[in-house]
Design a protein that fits this description.
Two copies of one chain form a homodimer. By secondary structure, the first copy, chain A, is α/β, with parallel strands linked by helices. Chain A folds into three domains: 69 residues, Arc Repressor Mutant, subunit A (Orthogonal Bundle), CATH 1.10.10.10; 137 residues, 2-Layer Sandwich (Nucleotidyltransferase, domain 5), CATH 3.30.420.40; 168 residues, 2-Layer Sandwich (Nucleotidyltransferase, domain 5). The first copy, chain A, has 13 helices and 16 strands. In chain A, the strands form four sheets. Chain A has a five-stranded mixed beta sheet. Chain A has a five-stranded mixed beta sheet with strand order 14-13-12-15-16, sandwiched between helices. The first copy, chain A, has a three-stranded antiparallel beta sheet with strand order 1-3-2. In chain A, strand 4 and strand 5 form a beta hairpin. In chain A, helix 2 packs across helix 3, helix 4 packs across helix 5 and helix 11 packs across helix 12. The longest helix of chain A has 25 residues. Chain A is globular, with a radius of gyration of 23 Å. Chains A and B meet through helix 1, strand 13, strand 14, helix 11 and helix 12 of A and helix 1, strand 13, strand 14, helix 11 and helix 12 of B. Chains A, B: Pfam families: MarR_2, ROK. Chains A, B: Belongs to the ROK (NagC/XylR) family. Chains A, B: InterPro entries: ATPase_NBD (IPR043129), HTH_MarR-typ (IPR000835), ROK (IPR000600), WH-like_DNA-bd_sf (IPR036388), WH_DNA-bd_sf (IPR036390). Chains A, B: It comes from Pendulispora rubella. Chains A, B: This is ROK family transcriptional regulator.
């Protein structure tokens, strides 16, 4: 095999991803079908550069695998008057199960191959200090319910991805640290493999901030934004950095730890060991405390997000203490985002998680602190876009990444 | 043409870089020759997957173009006893001219296709407030001298790259802002094209921090480091971020503006419009001022780096004021690098520019502040590697990038 280093100005010859040429070609054809939703064979041949015979042979494999189906007549645009048989993704062919363990809730959702959301469920629960085994057991029950609903809808769930709030060592299969859960060195791959229902594809897992950014890319505003940084604020604060449609992960997969950037040297001690981290100023608990809301009591009394709903209620009523708490958090977040802009130079910043419902009150102070910290080097600063997915982005990204795995390599589902 | 989006887990089908298949294959063969320095045809066929006939045809083109030459017998390793004729890069075939405009000096160097340094020259000069046209005129004289020396050595210089200390809009061909030079919206592409001696390839230019990182990658410690962040401290402070052997540039090419991260909110006003930027605490002038050395006087009296040499002299003699100035700068830099580690998660950090000669005194305080700011999330922090290239990295990177352009697409030199 060749071992060619990527050149400075381009990606050079990339890594070989697919076992055989046929596997790669199946992926190219399926990718076009997913993009177009409905497309004719003639147009598929045009888009991929394959002959019509090759397209037909590849389609036959995809139809056999249940991933694609044919039917209906399609007129392709005005300039191409000739009708053809439509090829489309078989929604029920392969669905993805997204799961999420977060500090104060669990979530599950099912997304089909056309990335339509078919099921969603969120359960509030305080996981701080609970053993990982017990939490995975609760997650398994949520997964069973989701699979039951999928099966009821005639969906074939191919695999699952789990979103986790911590630093992951995916090479060793360990969660290295989740300061807000109080977890360290958890053999998370083994726990998930053994604890969750078995599916055709092996269970995968990823950092919740990364998956939230992908959720925004696939189900939210992300596709229009170019390179963006997605801020996922929950009890912890993380950033998912999307560059060229991919998540930027760093050398060890620990990139985007926005919440542990120090904004107040010598400030409050953080679970990460440092002092004055952004999380201590702008994380959910810090904001609720400053606003005079007892976080734990509200969380356990209501559904996930209940405490934020209570805060939003006070904000809407003009409560001074609540407003000043949110302004203070916004100022700290904006100052940190100035560093993000100086280092990453994104096209846009997405305010996700709790910063989405808090945006009407937080955004002005975030913008002001960002502008102050970024100076006048740039003609324009990246816009702050408010996520419509809020806290739901990570579990959507998790489910979507299963669909993505299948689209990128449909041969994964042909083995049986 | 296909328009395939890169998949989440891989690079998918990359952009087509070369005009024809032959052009691409020429690049693959030349790349292998550059990597191996000396290699046989048989091994070239093995490494590229081409037949020996194809290899011979491609070699004939490269030899004709003067980029490659054959000669001498090579025994390829112990297991392959059979000798073959060696193919190697023709050092004189195509050289690159590197040029640099910085705040208080100009530099030029020539590097051959095998990335051997054949010429270097640095001239101290204070460019603050001088018109860009006049500075480019001085640079042209330096370039002429470099080309004279190259020609004297029998080298054919194919192109030039210029390192510039500012934010570049390479699409429009403008230098957007160079706060330390006091330049804004300079039509730098036009100025350089018209002002510099004409070569076979068009003149290119890049941010000095990016080129310093590439200089470190190609001529310094970088090749061993994986993904790294190179800190180039001069009057301004920048970072070049190397990910997978490429410079990370951001959405508009403005990534890595380390010097304008705020470390002391409300601190000294910076040329960028913000207050308390890292440059105001750890830039060359800030350190010299704090150390009691009058920056401008020393600079104009001595060669570039003369003021830093004077500082090093005082540090070596145990001067308290100098030592505390450097410790203070190190603390600010270390705190900023903690944010870099949290966001980028690099394998290593390289201390370049003035931080290289200052490292014996600055490194302990940089390390301490980095550890304090980064907390205990990670098992190990990226090591701080001291650059041996110091301030010379950017101009080396500039010259090397010409060699890189030729290696990535030798067909560029076949047109004539």
């Amino acid at each position: 095999m060749m071992a060619i280093k990527a050149g400075e100005q381009g990606w050079g010859v990339g890594p070989v991803r697919h076992g055989t040429m046929r596997d790669r070609n199946l992926a190219l054809v399926l990718d076009q079908i997913v993009r177009h939703q409905r497309i004719t064979r003639a147009r598929l041949a045009e888009m991929t550069g394959f002959t019509k015979t090759t397209v037909s042979n590849l389609l036959a494999v995809l139809v056999d695998a249940g991933l694609v189906r044919e039917g209906g007549i399609l007129y392709e645009g005005e300039r191409r008057g000739r009708p053809g048989t439509a090829v489309s993704v078989h929604g029920a062919g392969a669905a993805g199960l997204g799961l999420e363990i977060n500090v104060d809730y669990l979530a599950a959702c099912v997304v089909d191959l056309a990335r339509r959301v078919r099921y969603r469920h969120v359960v509030a629960a305080d996981h701080r200090g609970r053993p990982p085994e017990a939490v995975v057991e609760s997650l398994a029950r949520l997964a069973e319910e989701a699979l039951g609903s999928a099966s009821h809808q005639g969906l074939s769930v191919a695999g699952a991805t789990v979103a986790l709030p911590g630093l992951l060592d995916r090479e060793r299969g360990f969660l290295r640290r989740a300061p807000n859960l109080g977890w360290s060195d958890v053999p998370v791959q083994k726990l998930l493999q053994e604890g969750l229902p078995e599916l055709r594809l092996a269970v995968e897992y990823d950092n919740e901030a990364n998956l939230a950014a992908l959720g925004e890319l696939w189900f939210g505003a992300g596709a229009q934004l170019g390179d963006f940084v997605h801020v996922s604020g929950e009890i912890g604060i993380g950033a998912g950095i999307v560059v060229g449609g991919n998540v930027f992960r760093g050398a060890h997969g620990f990139a985007g730890e926005l919440g542990h950037i120090v904004v107040e040297p010598g400030g409050a001690r953080c679970g990460c060991g440092a002092r004055g981290c952004l999380e201590q100023m702008a994380g959910q608990e810090a904001i609720l405390r400053a606003a005079g809301l007892d976080a734990v009591a509200v969380t356990s009394a209501a559904s996930a997000g209940g405490s934020i709903a209570a805060l939003v209620d006070r904000l809407a009523k003009g409560d001074d203490r609540a407003r000043s708490a949110v302004r203070r958090a916004g100022k700290a977040l904006g100052a940190t985002l100035a560093a993000v802009v100086n280092l990453f130079d994104p096209d846009a910043i997405v305010l996700g998680g709790i910063f989405s419902p808090l945006a009407p009150w937080a955004k002005p102070s975030i913008e002001k602190a960002l502008a102050k910290g970024a100076g006048t080097l740039r003609d324009v600063l990246p816009p702050l876009v408010v996520s419509e997915l809020a806290g739901g982005a990570a579990v959507l990204g998790a489910a979507g990444s299963v669909a993505s795995r299948v689209t990128a390599d449909p041969a994964l589902l042909l083995e049986e």
